[in-house]
Amino acid sequence: MEPIRILIVEDDLDWLRGLKAYLDRQPDLQVIRTLSTAEEARELFTASEPDADVVLMDIMLQDEPAGIGLAEQALLAWGAKVIMLTSMEEKDFIFRSFQAGAIDYQIKSRFEELPAIIRGAHARKASINAAVAEQMREEFRRLKRLEHQFKVKEARDLITPTELQVLEMIDQGHTQTEIASRFFISLRTVKIHVGHILKKLGSPSSKDAAQKMRELGLFERGNSTHTSDSDKD
């Protein structure tokens, strides 16, 4: 049986040498190449034919999470199974690695488990357990909730209550003339409000701005079915 061919991308040269020596002692594993920088890895994946079955990819290279993008590149260019290496369980980075196509990850301090993980990856079996996977999903949901809360706070800080009311009426299908009539203000004043809103939110149109606010849950009332073809901004 041919040994499983392994590429290691790792910027800690002492740890890299130790890991290579450890894996090469396994009768069914063979480290065919080692790289220590993201640039070397990008060049290899771009210019070379696939020559490794499994890639061990350090998440952090030169203090950047460059391994995540390289994991996707290794998968697309070589079809290799990628196992991420990390010094700590950085859940956001690990989740993004799985999104990029990594099949598993391993804490470096538990390197002695790598031979079994490599064999499982080569056989298309991810050894990550269900409990860890659920923890990562929950962390991702937590991060999305925090992101949403930040966006809501940012919007509330930018948009005045009056501007929010204008956007809500636009979202309900009211024209600027109808909004002016509802608030007993001039059409020019409504247009000024809309101009300020678009500038603050960087939106191309008032409808786009209104949609953003609706998606953030900032409107108190549901949308009506009112529509009109006149006075569109």
Automatic annotation (TrEMBL):
Matching SMART domains: HTH_LUXR, REC
Keywords from the UniProt entry: Coiled coil, DNA-binding, Phosphoprotein, Transcription, Transcription regulation
InterPro entries for the chain: CheY-like_superfamily, NreC/VraR/RcsB-like_REC, Sig_transdc_resp-reg_receiver, Tscrpt_reg_LuxR_C, WalR-like
Boundaries of every Response regulatory domain copy: 5-123
Superkingdom, natural source: Bacteria
Coiled-coil parts of chain: 129-156
Ranges for domain HTH luxR-type: 152-217
Positions of region (Disordered): 203-233
4-aspartylphosphate modified-residue sites: 58
Family matches, as Gene3D superfamilies: 3.40.50.2300
Basic and acidic residues composition bias: residue spans: 209-218
Protein name as it appears in the record: Response regulator transcription factor
Keyword DNA-binding part of the UniProt annotation: yes
